[in-house]
Amino acid sequence: MMNEAKRARTSHSIHELIATRWSPYGFDARPVSESDLRSLFEAARWAASSYNEQPWRFIVARKKDAAEFERMLACLVEGNQAWARRAPVLALAVARLHFSHNDKPNPAAQHDIGMATCSLQLQATALGLSVHPMIGILPQRAREEYTIPQGYEALTALALGYAAELDALDDTLRRRDEAVRLRKPLSELVFARTWKRTAAWVEDPTGESS
After folding, report:
1. Sign of the CA dihedral with 141 first, then 144, 148, and 149 last
2. Is the pLDDT of residue 159 over 50?
3. Dihedrals φ, ψ of 125, to 5°?
4. CB crowding 177-192: b at 16 or more within 10 Å, else e
5. Is the pLDDT of residue 61 over 80?
6. Does 115 have pLDDT greater than 70?
7. Could you give the CA distance from residue 27 to residue 84 in angstroms, rounded to a whole number?
8. DSSP string, 130-198
9. What is the structure's pLDDT at 182?
10. Range(s) of the chain covered by CATH 3.40.109.10
11. H-helix or E-strand containing 38?
């Protein structure tokens, strides 16, 4: 069930999947089906990428395989381990850092990992699942644990599962998961003609500005 406190309080119309996507700290113990996992990573597979390079790779561990789950959990910083251990699935997002067609550095690799992760998150929302991405990982530990080759780098981790009911969480996690989501206004984000000059149409409710 959607945590209504986390629904985006938008200033303009957006798709329901975007409005209801959020990243919980509290996860239910319910496992994620293999068919849903395939759907999530299929969505990531079809994300856009520079030169269609598809630089993303994912290493996945499910809680049902306790040893593998603990192995991946150890690749997270301690603060993230504390809450992410509740999720039924963990994944590491790994980027190929060079283009395959010329072996030159791919400056879009991190951007494209974000594209793939966003696609995965929206698919998860459509399935009633939640995803919490985190930058707080130990990349060298991940390289050693999973023999990630040179030219690839673990960039982020994902906790996947069903968001827990608030009354099932301890006080710290409940406060995090019941807090209202906030975003900067468009006037601080969308410019025209020069830096920090808000595009006129952003603040024109009639949509008729030039």
Report:
1. positive
2. yes
3. -60, -40
4. beeeeeeeeeeeeeee
5. yes
6. yes
7. 8
8. EEEEE--B-HHHHHHHHTPPTTEEEEEEEEEEPBPPGGGS-HHHHHHHHSPP----GGGT-B-SSTT-B
9. 93
10. 4-179
11. helix 34-45
- Quick check: 17 pLDDT over 90? yes
Task: Return the residue matching tokens 């949509």.
Answer: 207
Has domain 4-179 been given CATH number 3.40.50.720?
Answer: no
Angle, to 10 degrees, between the axis of helix 34-45 and the axis of helix 109-126?
140
Q: How many angstroms separate the CA atoms of 175 and 21, rounded?
A: 18
| CA 179 to chain CA mean position, Å | 19
CB distance 4 to 179 below 8 Å = no
pTM (whole model) above 0.90: yes
Cβ(132)–Cβ(159) under 8 Å? Answer: yes
Sorting pLDDT into bands at 50, 70 and 90, what band is 79? very high
Mean pLDDT of the 150-179 span: 95
The Cβ of residue 204 has, within 10 Å, a number of other Cβ atoms equal to: 11
Q: List the end-to-end C-alpha distance of the chain, in Å, as a whole number.
A: 43
87 with 159: CB under 8 angstroms? yes
Q: Average model confidence (pLDDT) for the chain?
A: 95
